[in-house]
Amino acid sequence: MESPAESGVADEPVVQANLFATGAPGPEHAELISSIAALSHLSTGRLTLPDILTEVAHLAVLAIPGADGAGLTLTENDRSDTIVATAPFVREVDSIQYDLREGPCISAAAERQTMRSGSLGGEQRWPRFGPRVGRLGVHSVLSLPLLAADESFGAMNVYAHRRDAFDDNAARIGELFASPAAIAVQNAQILQQAKRLAAGLQAAASSRATIDQALGIIRSRSGCSSDEAYERLRTMSQNKNTKLVVVAKSLVDEAVRRAIARHTA
What residue ranges do the domains of the chain occupy? Predict the structure, then answer.
């Protein structure tokens, strides 16, 4: 079993130590401790990346006092990607800020700092986003950057309908949760990339085997060299405006059908 240091996710004693460093933990911190403990138990082998992000967002709502909903966004090449939400209103709010390219999530990710507001309708930092969200009855936000080695790769947005829902204590709890949450998310992201690479390599190996089989068929029929067989296959691909591996597979399938027909005739 992994130790907390090996898994990269803080365990309960570490969280408690951090809380004692800034003041004795109170009853409101119980959910934070249990939520962070739950992060370390997320099975990245069984869950997809969106599933893991959604679970992290749900844990954020449990951990942070005053939260009504939360969402997570990963950024890559300066664009938002893999957006999840715990409630429909969160998805609607986040869609507004991504459409406007203005809002607390975008600011938190870009500036690598926590963004907080208790009156979005009159928020001067986001003059287009704030009033639109305020009209939806969402007045408070706590946006926390997801950081790894001081680089931001996304943000976690926590929303509340009432005004001034997130005080200094809620912001501190959010920041304590965001650090291990970022590690859990990044680990899941790396695992997904590894799975995608493995699938690509497997597909490439399968394609190479099919092409080699097709080249062998061409050589057996014509007696040509390997290079000549490849040129013939490439010419067929160009004439049919079809991928090389697709043409190769059709040749192999045809050869198999012919072999079966000979044996059953």
Answer: 4-195, 201-264
User: Angle at the Cα of 137 (from 131 to 138), degrees rounded to 5?
Assistant: 75
CA 76/CA 174 separation, integer angstroms: 23
Residue type, 205: A
Q: Which of 132, 153, 151, 149 is nearest to 141 (CA)?
A: 132
Q: Provide CATH code, domain 4-195.
A: 3.30.450.40
Three-class SS state of 141: strand
- 230 bridge partner residues: none
Digit-coded pLDDT (tens) for 101-146: 999 999 999 899 999 999 999 999 999 999 999 999 999 999 999 9
Predicted confidence band of residue 4 (pLDDT cuts 50, 70, 90): very low
Nearest to 176 by CA among 27, 42, 14: 14
Compute the radius of gyration of the chain from its Cα atoms. Answer: 27
Overall fold of domain 201-264? Arc Repressor Mutant, subunit A (1.10.10)
What are the two backbone dihedrals, phi and then psi, of residue 254, each rounded to the nearest 5 degrees? -65, -45
Look at the pTM and tell me if it is higher than 0.70: no
Residue 97 amino acid letter: Q
Nearest-CA neighbor of 171 among 145, 143, 147, 137?
143
Tokens 């943000």 belong to which residue? 155
Structure-token pair, residue 190: 């790396």
Helix (H, G, I), strand (E, B) or coil at 44: coil
Using the 8-state DSSP alphabet, how is residue 143 labeled?
Answer: E
